[in-house]
Amino acid sequence: MNQPLVVGVDGSEPSLRAVDWAADEAALRRAPLRIVYASLWERYEGPALAREVGGSSGRVAAEDILAAAAQRALRHHAELPVTTADMLEEPERALVREARGASAVVVGSRGRSGLADLLLGSVSLTVAAQADCPVVVIRGNHSNRAVGGGRDHIVVGAADGPTAAVRFACEEAKRRGVPLEAVRAWRCPLHETVDHPLLTGEPERLHEERAAKELEAALADAPEEVRLRRRTVEGPARRVLLAASRDAGLLIVGRRCPGRPGPRLGRVAHTVLHHSGCPVVVVPEVE
Fold this sequence. Notes:
The protein is α/β, with parallel strands linked by helices. The protein is built from nine helices and twelve strands. Helix content is about 35%, strand content about 20%.
């Protein structure tokens, strides 16, 4: 059997939307869905879950949260193998551990402690930075389904060579039967544009050509059946990818190898996780 797809729930509406997305993705992968609830608190008061379980009060227990999430997953995919797990520990630690045997981990953009829709929750950020497998953070205001909704193409931020993020993006595009837009951002250092009045425009052209070559190198291993769209765009990678996310169904970015020193989430991944207009996948680079 395929590795399970793990989704973290805490009773909040964002986590229930993550269940919808994860159920679609698990069905596409023909993989079992594992729903994980982890908390050091015994109960959660939440009207969203009370409605899901048919209760009149907002007070629901862990088993109610898991039952509601499982019912929600099976509502659209009745044959999907679903298991649940209730863990009395910090959710960050539980989900990072679950990631070791998972094909991917799906989380909402913020949990029940979130202060605003635009802010990424600490659990999502920690799991995206530390998990050994791809982490999907459900963002955006459009449909939270993994397929459909009019935004079916996938965007991947391309580096200067083949990466785990590009490979993951190709597999997702094949699985869904949608186009893959590979984006390479480039910058022209300011001092290069004013060296000589007769050279105005030349440095930009050279940097753009180099970006195009790097993009081709990044896509060297892309399967022929993937419908590729290549795009080089001048500007900071963070701004370029955020703009691309506004009409995409999924945005995929890479993350430094877990074994390397320093912050695992770069500025690009950190920014898109907070502000993307669609779900974001953070893929760890494995040496």
